[in-house]
């Protein structure tokens, strides 16, 4: 994926809400039940608890340590790499760091399923637990709308398909670290009146590399589907 690197989103699990506890432990403390904290950490560091995993629909017993850190992971509902392709490249460093640590976009989930998802969007990955799909997609829509991230036509179709089954599903709005006014739905890649036959034509026009949203962008010009064609 051209240009993307995790380091571009700043310090992982930074205490952006300044409550004295890093975001990973904030999420574990929020999403687990029966939580026990490490003594002397002011109820910050989570030692044990139980996760009602939304992605699988199963319950996972959590005990702090490397093995359970892999079994229970913190997912960015809108993946950082997906955000990078769809607008975050244009953000400043502070906004990217805030996005990466926004509690609205973070969930404690089954580790293997989180790894299976990778950078997938709604068009390419949905939780196996069908009962959670409406809430999952609604959260993606809310996060993308808050941050002004766009969606592909295939992604929009998938979102509409899922949410049409649950029209009363509430849409999360706002952000835990950014106070945002109501914003419109995520932008969809618009058709262009400019067309290029191939990358030679793009380069001849001085338009390379060509990004999604640029006049003339087409999937045939973007072989690795990273949102940047004729690299």
Could you walk me through the main structural features you see in this protein, from its secondary elements to its overall organization?
- This protein has 231 residues and is of the alpha+beta class.
- It has 2 domains: 158 residues, no CATH class; 30 residues, no CATH class.
- 29% of the residues lie in helices and 14% in strands.
- It has a 3-stranded antiparallel beta sheet with strand order 1-2-3.
- The longest helix is centred in the middle third of the chain and has 15 residues.
- The termini are close together.
- The relative contact order is 0.13.
Structural class: alpha+beta
Written as H for each helix and E for each strand, in order along the chain, the element string is: HEEEHEHHEHHHHEE
Q: How would you sum up the major sheet?
A: 3 strands, antiparallel
Q: Categorize the overall geometry.
A: globular
Secondary structure: helix percent: 25-40%
Q: What's the total helix number?
A: 8
How many strands in all?
7
Distance between the termini: 11 Å
In short:
With 231 residues, this protein is an alpha+beta fold. 29% of the residues lie in helices and 14% in strands.
Keywords:
alpha+beta, two-stranded antiparallel ribbon
Strand-helix topology:
Elements: H1 23-31, E1 32-37, E2 46-52, E3 59-63, H2 66-71, E4 72-76, H3 80-85, H4 93-100, E5 106-110, H5 111-117, H6 133-147, H7 153-163, H8 199-204, E6 210-211, E7 228-229
Antiparallel strand pairs: 1-2, 2-3, 4-5, 6-7
